[in-house]
Amino acid sequence: MMGAEFVQLSLTPILIGVLASIACALPGNFLILRRQALIGDAISHVVLPGIVAAFLVTGTVAAMPMMIGAAVAALVAVVLIEAIRRLGRIEPGAAMGVTFTSLFAGGVLLLEQSDTSAVHLDVEHALMGNLESLIWLDATGWSSLTDAAALAGLPPELPRIALVAALISLLTWLFWRPLKLTSFDEGFARSLGMPVSIIGLALVSTAAIAAVAAFDAVGSIIVIAMFICPPAAARLMTNSLGAQVGWSLVFATVSAVLGYVLAGYGPIWLGFSASVSAAGMIATVTGLILAVACIAGPMRARVGQGATG
Amino acid sequence: MTASDPSGAEGGLDPRSPLAVRGLTVTYGEKPALFSLDATFPAGRMSAIVGPNGAGKSTFLKAALDLIPRVSGEVTVFGRPVDQVRDRIAYVPQRASVDWDFPTTAIDVVLMGLYGRLGLWRRITGGHRDQARTCLDRVGMADFADRQIGQLSGGQQQRVFLARALAQEADLYLLDEPFAGVDAATERAIIDVLKSLKDEGRSVIAVHHDLSTVPQYFDHVLLINLRRVAEGPIAEAFTPETLTKAYGGRLAATQLDRLALSAS
After folding, report:
1. Is residue B118 within 8 angstroms of chain A, CB to CB?
2. Kind plus residue range of the DSSP H or E element containing A294
3. If you ran DSSP here, which 8-state letter would residue A7 be given?
4. Which of A297, B12, B93, B128 shows the greatest Cβ crowding within 10 Å of its Cβ?
5. How confident is residue B7, by pLDDT bands cut at 50, 70 and 90?
6. DSSP letter string, chain B
7. Per-domain residue ranges of chain A
8. CB-based burial label for B127 (10 Å; 0-12, 13-18, 19+)
9. Chain B 168-197, CB below 8 Å of chain A: which residues?
10. Quick one: B36 exposed, middle or buried, by C-beta within 10 A (0-12, 13-18, 19+)?
11. Domain A4-218 belongs to what topology?
């Protein structure tokens, strides 16, 4: 498993899975603490109609039009959520739920009606991505990692998601203090003159970039799971924000690696012939990690301990 | 920023005042929350903002600090626009306004008081930690420095908030209901710290809801109910007449008598 075949068939999908998971889990930490976890969910759903519309307009599946389409769809969703909330006078969670399921459903219909047979764009792909197909055919073994010709044949999803993961890590590190302070105490942050609304918008935009980049490679199931499960499990491990973010990265990485390996080899170990969806298995593993943290996490009993008013 | 700096004065507001407002009007939707309010707080004193529920006390603090938009009105802090003097202001929000389940410790919250001076990237050193510990010590919370904030009682949480404000080393302290839902020991500890701030020449303005302690704790009072009802030294502005005006029929005659006695 660790030889040339591994480098050719498993290394790149695992790396892409890990990087996509990290890119989503990082902003997920702050979204959860702000009780905005649903936003990650909403974004990953509205990405679909955006991408389909971009394809219908441009006729290609190039990265740039897809990104723009997804961004426009996210913007439409934000406006719709606000409009429904104000005109319908219902709570934000319900407005979000209505908006993103409707837009996602619209995306599915749009996808079925349009001729996308020539390109890799269908409902199954939107949900589960095509992680298993992101293989590195030019690789002949570990030595290919230093071979420029072979590296040129890497699936383009890998450098793209690597860039996004690096960018999000850098932004989180650079703006750690404002992110932490505005998530904990918005009023105090404003009294210091911090641009609280801009920071909130930047966080949601960063989550959107992560969702769009990850969606392309791994599908929306992993995106939704990674925004919520690793940070939520990490919160149950520690009472420090820094350690929470660290744990969430560990959980995201473990989920991606373990999920991919289990999907590929698990059924065979159990005597079945075919492997199962890597995206589905990765999301399942991260859900199981959350379940274990809920039962055994050292900080699971914290709620209600304090005499908070 | 003293009286010798008249150039900093805006629109005729007293440049020596730590907080002066004129014509402050705020609305929530179409509902007015504050209407054309004037106030001039004295420097180096403890001032209370008093009024019935929904009178706009917290709204006043938030609008003065630009935390919420105002429809109209001028605000100066030491004769300057608020944005120019934010480093001289320490704001203590209502305890209930934050999620105490947040993954952070007491000392970490106090260190947030240094963020204004540290900026985005300057490292937190041992010196900063010592400073934060000193602030916790001043409010009697030194033994709880590494406690997760959700494990503290309401009174202890309020003291941590005050310690964070101390770390800011401000000239003007604005506190929103610092005594709400706290135990007697905490109330004592908080008032002692606030009085020591006053002794250092700093100005303290607090939203306060317990009428019986107003004369005992404060020098100056702003009585509001959407509009300004009265403002001035306790003896002048905190009288049965002004209280009746602010609270309408909500105070019994016996209460008013008792308050008048304690004020004189």
Report:
1. yes
2. helix A278-296
3. I
4. B93
5. very low
6. --TT-GGG--TT--TT-SEEEEEEEEEETTEEEEEEEEEEEPTTSEEEEE-STTSSHHHHHHHHTTSS--SEEEEEBTTB-GGGSGGGEEEE--GGGS-TTSS-BHHHHHHGGGHHHHTTTPPP-HHHHHHHHHHHHHTT-GGGTTSBGGGSBHHHHHHHHHHHHHHTT-SEEEEESTTTT--HHHHHHHHHHHHHHHHTT-EEEEE---GGGHHHH-SEEEEEESEEEEEEEHHHHSSHHHHHHHHGGGS-HHHHHHHHHHH-
7. 4-218
8. exposed
9. 174, 180-181
10. middle
11. ABC transporter involved in vitamin B12 uptake, BtuC (1.10.3470)
Helix, strand counts (H, E) of chain A: 13, 0
Residue with tokens 């839902």: B181
Written as one letter, the residue type at B32 is P
Q: How large is the ipTM?
A: 0.89
Q: Tokens at residue B198, please?
A: 């006053």
* C-beta of residue A260 within 8 angstroms of C-beta of residue A282: yes
Q: Which amino acid is at A158?
A: L
Dist. CA A287–CA A255, nearest whole Å? 9
What number of other Cβ atoms are within 10 A of residue A292's Cβ?
12
CB–CB of A192 and B101 under 8 A? no
Place A194 in a pLDDT band, splitting at 50, 70 and 90.
very high
Crossing angle of helices A196-235 and A37-58, rounded to 10°: 110
Closest CB to B151 among A193, A240, A305 = A305
Cα distance from B124 to chain A (closest Cα, Å)?
11
B102 has a chain A CB within 8 A of its CB: yes
Residue B221 and residue A62: Cα distance in Å, rounded?
66
pLDDT digits (tens, 9 = 90+) for A102-157: 998 888 888 888 776 656 667 777 777 778 888 888 888 888 888 888 888 888 88
Q: Does A33 sit within 8 Å of B99, measured CB to CB?
A: yes
Cβ partners under 8 Å of residue A261, min gap 6: A14
Query: Is the Cβ pair A187, B86 closer than 8 Å?
Result: no
Segment 120-149 of chain B within 8 Å of chain A by CB: 120-121, 148-149
Best mutation target, A182, A183, A239, A300, to test chain B (most B CBs within 10 A): A239
Residue B148 forms beta bridges with which residues? B105
pTM reported for the whole predicted model? 0.86
Query: What's phi and psi for A219, nearest 5 deg?
Result: 85, 170
**Angle of helix A196-235 relative to helix A176-184, nearest 10 degrees?**
80
Pairing relationship of beta strands B19-28 and B72-76 according to DSSP bridges: antiparallel
Nearest residue on chain B to A185, alpha-carbon basis: B98
User: Which stretches within A175-277 are classed as H helix?
Assistant: 176-184, 186-191, 196-235, 241-269
